[in-house]
Amino acid sequence: MVNKILITGGSGFIGSALVSKLAKDKNNEIYVIDIEEPKINLTAKYEKMDIRSNQIQSYLQKIKPNKIIHLAAQASVAISSKDPILDNDVNVGGSLNILKSATQLNLSQFVFFSTGGAIYGEEVGKKFNEENIVNPQSPYGISKASFENYLNYYSNKFNIPSTIIRPSNVFGPGQNPNGEAGVVSIFAKKMLENKPVTIFGSGNEYRDYIFIDDVVDFIEKIIEKNTTGTYNLCSTQKTKTIEIFELLKKIIDYQYEPIMSNSREGDIFGIELDNSKASKISKWKPKTTLIEGLNKTINHLKK
Does 140 qualify as catalytic in the annotation? Predict the structure, then answer.
């Protein structure tokens, strides 16, 4: 049976990687909506559309997907703090627009990309799992948690099998090095151009970095098996921002020290996640080490 999969935000960093991979399978028919032009030209059918558009319902009725992977979002914690109304409008309003329209389809799965980094709050030394109560510390985290609740409600009411993915800091080739989020790409591009690099905070802030291919690998596994539930996707390794800086500096042979600046509103000090639930799915585990991932990202940026 052919899988008709709609990917929202399919021109973004994670979306492009997912489209690339899933479009190679002849059993998949891929549809993409995004406000950006596609980065890749495969067999996927692109539609330039905002998820808040009043055309969403008629578009979904026209293509009738049996799976939706919802990635489209306002994805910056910093922007969400500056403009919480925009953040809510896209991440809650736009997502609800997709979900409400999807209730009229016969979906076998609705996959939502939430956040692992910004949903649990902060407790130094604790590894958060999916059972822990969410306690977001930014409008971005609040909007993602809010839509999770809507998805659970609609999923039960309309019997839509749903999957919530809570990724840690995803990095790799194709990540926007000019945006507000994505420290690996931002630092690497500036170093390659011999420009100053700014670290917000003390540099001791820590995150869990997971490589893009490992995320795509997990999504492939869950859509193949129609797996439902909520999953943290992470490497389980905590890495300080200053360590990311030092590793990139060494690989690129960058000569300067970082410029230290104040933390940005909404940024937490550190987050560690537990991925043992995800690792039970088809024996999934992250395969790419941080160093391998950094090298691949740098090589991509050089091209």
Answer: yes
Q: Which pLDDT tens digit goes with each residue over 3-38?
A: 999 999 999 999 999 999 999 998 999 999 999 988
Residue 40 to residues 21, 45, 74, 174, 232, Cα–Cα distance (Å): 11, 11, 21, 11, 28
Q: Which ranges in the chain belong to alpha helices (H)?
A: 13-22, 56-63, 77-82, 84-88, 95-102, 139-158, 183-192, 212-225, 241-252, 290-302
Which two structure tokens, joined as six digits, stand for 190?
């500036």
- Alpha-carbon span 300 to 303, nearest angstrom: 5
Neighbours of 270 (CB within 10 A): 18
> Looking at residue 193, what is its pLDDT?
95
As a whole number of angstroms, the distance between CA 146 and CA 203 comes to 30
Torsion angles phi and psi, residue 233, rounded to 5: -115, 115
**Which residues are CB-contacts of 133 (< 8 A; sequence separation ≥ 6)?**
none
| Marked catalytic residue, from 31, 140, 231, 254 | 140
Give the bridge partners for 205, in sequence order. none
